[in-house]
């Protein structure tokens, strides 16, 4: 039986999509997490899942009712419930209580930073181990996500080369609630190089748990340090990944939005962008760029690269005319040719001044803010911030916003590049009025 088709069909048959995810290709496990989703499939019981659920093949970990955590078999020690990696479009709407990332042999399943212990209906839940997470600077940052977020969704579409689909090097994750009821998280990764898809998926699998672990150690008041450490750990983790990942000439962007009540902190490396869509009282819609691309020609970025022995130069065609963007090169060599000054992976480029340290900004969600859009450069190549804002400002759901952006970006690529399109990935968060 085609598990991928079964998961997608089941999710769409339940009415509004609660939280459907597909990870990997047909050789990997398919997963669905969500609230009160019913499943009827071959060799599986029909259960009403109310806290979280995951399955893949004959290995399952799930809860069957509130307050009951039931464990059948253990799966991968670092299971990731994130993605949009299939060749087909896949929309993800996040409404799960927590996001599961691992299971171990102590007979407990763990969400990022939180433990779900095996318990009976009458057994009180285990206390949350991350009490430091309650330390925030304002009551506005303690507001639960269900009071702020209307919907959250993501959509990724593989690009095309000469009319044929290529490997999608983009990845993403979107959790409407993360670790604590007043937290949510969303991220987009855009891989590049021969193993770019492997690097972006590695980040997708590991970044949420790294952030959760750092939150447990440092607390929410140190959010900038939390995010900086998580990005650097993700980068260094590629060196010791199992199975090994060759990231010498491959890497990925990363743009991560971490919500704390009405405050959202965005950290990023590379050229994946985040924007706020704002509706003014006079009816005017405004797109506000939250991030800026990390280009090697920016003054501070260029200085760092030159100080590390790198050079920044454009390619030249056979007639000597410069073409394409400015790229980072080793002095005296035409490698690696990276068109950004910050990235995760790209170990050769890191030898000449490219860094994985993210830039970080904070935005307080205002009454007029309607959407946060995080997207890969497949969107921004031919669409401006204002064009995206105008396109989605009247969307009723985050899923509708994702579909509008992906369809419009794809049509512009095809019109301009005659059948060649980049991978296009969007995570949209719609705010309650």
Task: Explain the overall architecture.
The structure is a single chain. With 433 residues, this protein is an alpha+beta fold. It has a single domain (130-433), classed as 4-Layer Sandwich (Phosphatase 2c, domain 1), CATH 3.60.40.10. The protein has helices at 3-13, 196-218, 223-237, 299-307, 347-350, 377-380, 385-392, 398-417, and strands at residues 20-22, 30-32, 37-38, 48-49, 53-56, 59-65, 68-71, 90-93, 102-104, 108-111, 114-117, 149-157, 160-161, 164-165, 170-175, 183-192, 251-252, 254-260, 263-269, 273-279, 285-289, 310-316, 322-330, 336-338, 344-345, 359-364, 369-375, 424-431. The strands form eight sheets. Strands 15, 16, 17, 18, 19, 25 and 26 form a seven-stranded antiparallel beta sheet that branches. The chain has a six-stranded antiparallel beta sheet with strand order 8-12-28-27-20-21. It has a three-stranded antiparallel beta sheet with strand order 5-6-7, with no helix packed on it. Residues 1-137 have low confidence and may be disordered.
Keywords:
433 residues, alpha+beta, 7-stranded antiparallel beta sheet
Which SSEs are present, and which pair or pack?
Layout lengths: L2 H11 L6 E3 L7 E3 L4 E2 L9 E2 L3 E4 L2 E7 L2 E4 L18 E4 L8 E3 L3 E4 L2 E4 L31 E9 L2 E2 L2 E2 L4 E6 L7 E10 L3 H23 L4 H15 L13 E2 L1 E7 L2 E7 L3 E7 L5 E5 L9 H9 L2 E7 L5 E9 L5 E3 L5 E2 L1 H4 L8 E6 L4 E7 L1 H4 L4 H8 L5 H20 L6 E8 L2
Antiparallel strand pairs: 1-2, 3-4, 5-6, 6-7, 8-12, 9-10, 10-11, 12-28, 13-14, 15-16, 16-17, 16-18, 17-25, 18-19, 19-26, 20-21, 20-27, 22-23, 23-24, 27-28
